[in-house]
Amino acid sequence: MKEAKHIAIVGATGAVGEEMLACLDQRNFPISELTLLASARSAGKTIPFQGKDIIVKELTHDSFEGVDIALFAAGGDTSLEYAPSAAKAGAIVIDNSSAYRMDDEVPLIVPEINPEAAKEAKKGIIANPNCTTIISLMALFPLHKKYGLKAIIASSYQAVSGSGAQGIAELKQQCEALANGGEIVSEVYPTQIAFNVIPQVDVFQPDNYTKEELKMLNESRKILGVPELKVTCTCVRVPVYRSHAVSITAVFENKPSVEDARAVYANYPGVDSKDDPSQNLFPTPLDTTLKDDCLVGRIREDKVIDNALALWVVGDQVRKGAALNAVQIAEIL
Amino acid sequence: MKEAKHIAIVGATGAVGEEMLACLDQRNFPISELTLLASARSAGKTIPFQGKDIIVKELTHDSFEGVDIALFAAGGDTSLEYAPSAAKAGAIVIDNSSAYRMDDEVPLIVPEINPEAAKEAKKGIIANPNCTTIISLMALFPLHKKYGLKAIIASSYQAVSGSGAQGIAELKQQCEALANGGEIVSEVYPTQIAFNVIPQVDVFQPDNYTKEELKMLNESRKILGVPELKVTCTCVRVPVYRSHAVSITAVFENKPSVEDARAVYANYPGVDSKDDPSQNLFPTPLDTTLKDDCLVGRIREDKVIDNALALWVVGDQVRKGAALNAVQIAEIL
């Protein structure tokens, strides 16, 4: 029997924080005590969990007394400031921000791919990967194990939930304004996202790629343990509420057949194929919304690169792309 | 001075037909007579044009007496049945459907790329290319001329206008139903398009690609005159009303620098660059809506393939992707 743990959630009132609570509940995670933390602005709110109303407390450096596992879902700055305090108090931190992902002493984990890395959390911190990276690797890892992944060319279709509750609210506001003649407010995104797509996610870097696009490169290398992996990525925000989709050309050492690739998903946890062109079967973001598993479809031979497949993967960004993956890491511990 | 022509529009009440009228008007195309044709269902409607109300007539095999140029915008079956009658009556047909595009005796033209092909219209029919292909080639042709295009890997973000007025109406209906608690109707698309993306445009072919994806391959080869061009394409419908976007990795014989690539658009008609990451400048579909020119941005070195650039192009699907391109072909004649 598992020992019940004292769990803290930092950013409990955000989109990912709320989903972490839902995942802990649905998966019957053994909890001895639950501490919900947020900024002063949200402190005092109550959040129901398993029949009790839990009061959200203000996050301070002293919030982590007796906490076994601290799930951080409040942005990079908060993680940088408070995760060391949590670790110092003896908690294991599972951080959803990008702050520690590329730190050599911090494991970066997708539980279906590299759970063994959890042992190497030298700082008491484990990082949860970027959502687009997790979802892409859920499709690519089963193929990588069999055929050896060498390169990825990807274009993403990312939901507004990736920007948290504010992203969701901004899309909703804009749709209502367009329907009722009101004024469109663009604060989260650089321009209108309703009935538009925006080829910028996170800030631009000196090589003309965005930080989000380079996460696919750097985080994939670290999670798969393939330092020479090549990745070209174009990250695009689309007016979808919470599942991401990614169109991928994946290049392998050895040639995979389309039939083998489809079959490979039958035996994998957390990912399944939905792929039968003869029956018009393919996955869309709505298929994975509020679901744990990622879905892969549109698998076919790439027509440009040898030993490459084109494919399409969708996954719930809030769930597998963030909250679920973090809770699964907590389960490994 | 140009001689005024008797123009007929087949499918005058559809989304593309209406836009053809707008383009003829805005470009002061010299018209001696205008015949608007549609199915029996739409015949009898009046459409205003340059101060006159023109009555839409029912399309028959005898509709083309005295017509100089017949613009077809009513789907492949209508073109297959009536375009030969128009050509037989002495009209030059400019066909927006896919029916004749791959016919060896029918030129397939983007006026900025291969206007000279118009001379070879042996059947009296000229084909207007697929919208995603036109918009992609507007970005790629200036680079092709300088660096020699070898291959394209593309993922599209296609507006619902590509399915005509019904596609636009379906997205609108679904958004209203979701806002007001009504029932979602999916007739044009295989599943909900509002707040979703659908990785299927046109029907599946035996190689697991869709017909739309193979158009990018076959039509690009014909328009550019590069029979060995390789193309992998994933066509995706997104909830945008009328501009398409395409994320492209373009592979060249010779290595283009990012600076050269940006500069190349300064001197080209019909396409411009909007690309300055330091100023957060990139084009979105709303930037080209109701505009003639396509816009290219996100130009950067591809990290997977040598001599390749990653880029992003947007263009108004109804205008440059269909109606404008057809009217520009008429202008060549």
UniProtKB/TrEMBL annotation, chains A, B:
A single GO molecular function term of this UniProt record: aspartate-semialdehyde dehydrogenase activity
Active site per database record: 131, 244
Keywords: Amino-acid biosynthesis, Diaminopimelate biosynthesis, Lysine biosynthesis, Methionine biosynthesis, NADP, Oxidoreductase, Threonine biosynthesis
Binding, NADP(+): 13-16, 41-42, 161-162, 317
Pathway connected to this protein: Amino-acid biosynthesis; L-lysine biosynthesis via DAP pathway; (S)-tetrahydrodipicolinate from L-aspartate: step 2/4; Amino-acid biosynthesis; L-methionine biosynthesis via de novo pathway; L-homoserine from L-aspartate: step 2/3; Amino-acid biosynthesis; L-threonine biosynthesis; L-threonine from L-aspartate: step 2/5
Self-association and partners: Homodimer.
Name under which the protein is recorded: Aspartate-semialdehyde dehydrogenase
